[in-house]
Design a protein that fits this description.
6-stranded parallel β-sheet; disordered C terminus; 5-stranded mixed β-sheet; alpha/beta; 7 helices; globular
């Protein structure tokens, strides 16, 4: 198989560095350009695949630049809600390219979200608590947003979750009717708890990331291989894994006018 030439955007960041190490260890992929968040996106010319590990404010431009050049793109940048993805879906389809959005490369995180979604129809009350290091600039996390959207899809017949007093700011940010509580503090890499409650009982699905390089590496390899030949838009690493049951499909909502604010930030803060 011909080696796939990769333009890596955000290659100097934490996630970008992990992706770079995975590619460097592969015989099937080669990094031919490393771009920072302020680089000229024309530097991706000559690549076969664009991998985006930048920041939410830049990511939309990276994806559009890849589509304009007829290149497939693998997006690991957080901040891509369903509404934001809906904005670029018709562009991808018109160009005949592929765009793969991965909220989390961790296999354990993907399985945890799928388990929470599978249990969601059986519990009326569901809330998510997620924690990341203090340097993470977006909240809620892309993983929490993805989990909430999967939960909502799984509860299509049961209806929205019960979340009383959501008009109070301390009750968290609602995403697809699910309250999400975001913690940003030192001493933590990534942790998510999905708490499902019913009459007389509760179920908590918890995932901890302890070593990002070790946790993300296998998922990055799966995503790279899939993104290389993908056509159309695909969301979630679970789309390429056989974990014994399928996560519910999320529906593509009507695109929102972002007003110049990155999608997830605009949607979750009202900015």
């Amino acid at each position: 198989m011909t080696t796939t030439r990769v333009a890596l955007v955000g290659g100097t960041g934490k996630l970008g560095g992990i992706i770079r190490d995975v590619i460097d260890a592969s015989e099937d992929f080669e990094v031919v350009a490393v771009l920072g968040s302020s680089s000229d996106l024309g530097e991706m010319d000559g690549a076969d695949l664009v991998v985006d590990a930048s920041v939410p404010a830049v990511s939309i431009d990276v994806v559009r630049a890849a589509i304009d050049r007829g290149l497939n793109v693998l997006v690991g940048t957080s901040g891509w809600s369903s509404e934001r993805i809906a904005l670029v879906r018709p562009l991808v389809e018109a160009a005949g390219t592929g765009a793969v959005f991965i909220p989390n490369f961790s296999l354990g995180s993907v399985i945890g979200s799928a388990i929470a979604a599978a249990a969601a129809p059986f519990f009326p009350s569901i809330e998510i608590i997620e924690a990341h290091r203090e340097t993470k600039i977006d909240s809620p996390s892309g993983t929490a947003v993805r989990t909430a959207e999967l939960i909502a899809a799984a509860r299509a017949e049961a209806g929205p979750v019960e979340s009383p007093h959501v008009d109070q700011r301390a009750r968290g940010q609602q995403v697809a009717s699910v309250p999400i509580h975001s913690l940003r503090r030192p001493g933590v890499v990534a942790r998510q708890e999905t708490i499902l409650s019913g009459a007389g009982e509760s179920l908590t699905v918890t995932h901890d990331t302890i070593d990002p390089a070790a946790a993300y590496g296998p998922g990055i390899r799966v995503a790279l291989a899939a993104a290389r030949a993908q056509r159309g838009v695909v969301v979630g690493l679970d789309s390429f894994l056989d974990i014994g049951f399928r996560s519910p499909r999320t529906h593509a909502p009507t695109p929102l006018d972002e007003g110049g604010v990155p999608g997830q930030v605009a949607r979750t803060t009202g900015a």
